[in-house]
Specification:
Order of helices and strands of chain A: HHHHHHH
Radius of gyration of chain A: 12 Å
Strand content of chain A: under 5%
Protein name (chain A): Aromatic-ring-opening dioxygenase LigAB, LigA subunit
Oligomer: heterodimer
Strand content of chain B: 15-25%
Largest interface: A-B, 18 and 15 residues
Radius of gyration of chain B: 17 Å
InterPro entries (chain A): LigA_sf, Xdiol_dOase_LigA
Order of helices and strands of chain B: EHHEEEHEHEHEHEHHHHEE
Structural class of chain B: alpha/beta
Keywords (chain A): Dioxygenase, Oxidoreductase
Shape of chain B: globular
Distance between the termini of chain A: 24 Å
Largest sheet of chain B: 8 strands, mixed
Number of domains of chain B: 1
Number of strands of chain A: 0
CATH superfamily of chain A: Dioxygenase LigAB, LigA subunit
Helix content of chain A: over 70%
CATH architecture of chain B: 3-Layer(aba) Sandwich
CATH topology of chain B: Protocatechuate 4,5-dioxygenase, Chain B
CATH superfamily of chain B: LigB-like
Organism (chain A): Streptomonospora litoralis
Domain Extradiol ring-cleavage dioxygenase LigAB LigA subunit (chain A): 4-81
CATH class of chain A: Mainly Alpha
Largest sheet of chain A: none
Shape of chain A: globular
Number of helices of chain B: 10
Number of helices of chain A: 7
Structural class of chain A: mainly alpha
């Protein structure tokens, strides 16, 4: 969980990392050692799944904002109203 | 003239929802007016008190600290602080990016006094940057950023949090610290956060008005047995953001008098129960 939270925080703090993540997430997920269900949730930017897997909600939300997800869309997704 | 020791001449608490500055127009006009009038009144009182420094207590939202190093309490001792942290956040919050002045002598003293008082806050000598924690309320309370700040950060964003009684004790320690120095004679405490809200969660936009009004009643009473009678689970019922009421408890500990809540409005459009209060000093 720490590696994942570190990635979410790094994306919040580093616009260049955010851009690279949007362009090609796999090398970045590899470098943070994120695998399995966490990787699937993060790779798909499946915020509802990330929440259900216990990721810190502040970090999910801030990471989403940095990845240019609209706030209303974020909340619609985490409520399961929109995929 | 002989120097006298400092004292706390005022204490105020307020919510710091981004909506207060970023989209005030979305609130019902009467609610917006009530909140903004209360902020204006507090600004007038602070100016009248002519503080040498403001001890500014809030949480921070993973802007500086992260899960590799998350202090329960931190005391900042710099002479300036950047806020909002990025230009983008400045645009989002509708707050112009600036350097907020810091009162480093008082900050250093509070940190040292904390250690001597068996508290162990993190020391932040520089680099602390502000998010909505201070930028939103201080846009209303000190728009020219003329009052030097001693920022104190309380973990209200990630469990486990410091207990409510520990937060209150930390506030009591701050008062003793202020009274044990001469660098800042007139000190105001401003604590920001809460009330009920959910951040990043499906419930976001809900307000737990029952929790908020009960908290306000306890806060106004200054009855410490009631004010400190909260478990983390009870606070959780008002959202992950409600844990920011710890900052209000620091302020309560610093003055130990009743507060008057100048405004309380449940504002789903701002995603918070929004309140502004002043200690009856």
């Amino acid at each position: 969980m720490y590696s994942l939270h570190k990635l979410l925080w790094d994306i919040r703090k580093d616009p260049d990392l955010a851009e690279r993540y949007l362009a090609d997430p796999d090398p970045i997920l590899d470098s943070y050692g994120i695998a399995g269900g966490d990787r699937a949730a993060m790779r798909g930017l499946d915020f509802k799944s990330m929440h259900e897997r216990g990721f810190n909600p502040y970090l999910i939300y801030f990471c989403a904002i940095q990845l240019k997800v609209d706030r209303a869309d974020y909340y619609a997704q985490i409520r399961g109203e929109k995929n | 003239m002989a120097e006298t020791t400092g004292r706390i001449v005022g204490a105020f608490t307020a919510s710091h929802s981004p909506g207060i500055t970023a989209w005030p127009e979305r609130a019902e006009p009467a609610k917006r007016e009530a909140v903004e009038s209360a902020f204006t009144e507090v600004r007038r009182r602070i100016d009248e008190l002519a503080p040498d420094a403001i001890v500014a207590v809030s949480v921070e939202h993973f802007t500086n600290f992260h899960l590799g190093n998350l202090p329960a309490f931190a005391v900042a001792t710099s002479d300036s602080y950047l806020g909002p942290v990025t230009e983008e956040m400045g645009e989002f919050l509708n707050v112009a990016q600036r350097q907020y002045p810091g009162h480093s002598a008082l900050g250093r003293h509070v940190y040292e006094f904390a250690l001597q008082s068996d508290f162990d806050p993190a020391l932040v000598e520089g680099g602390l940057e502000f998010d909505e924690n201070f930028c939103v309320p201080f846009k209303h309370l000190d728009p020219e950023s003329k009052h030097p700040l001693v920022p104190i950060i309380v973990n209200g964003v990630n469990p486990p949090w410091p207990t409510v009684s520990r937060c209150h004790d930390f506030g009591r320690m701050i008062r003793r610290a202020v009274e044990a120095q001469t660098a800042a004679q007139r000190v105001v405490v401003v604590a920001t956060g809460g009330l009920s809200h959910w951040v990043g969660l499906p419930e976001s936009g809900k307000v737990n008005e029952e929790f908020d009004r009960d908290f306000i009643a306890r806060f106004e009473s200054a009855d410490e047995s009631r004010l400190l009678d909260y478990t983390a689970e009870e606070i959780d019922a008002a959202g992950n953001g409600a844990h920011e009421i710890r900052t209000w408890l620091v302020a309560a500990g610093a003055v130990q008098v009743p507060f008057d809540v100048l405004a309380y409005e449940p504002v789903p459009e701002w995603l918070t129960g929004t309140a502004v209060a002043a200690a009856r000093l």
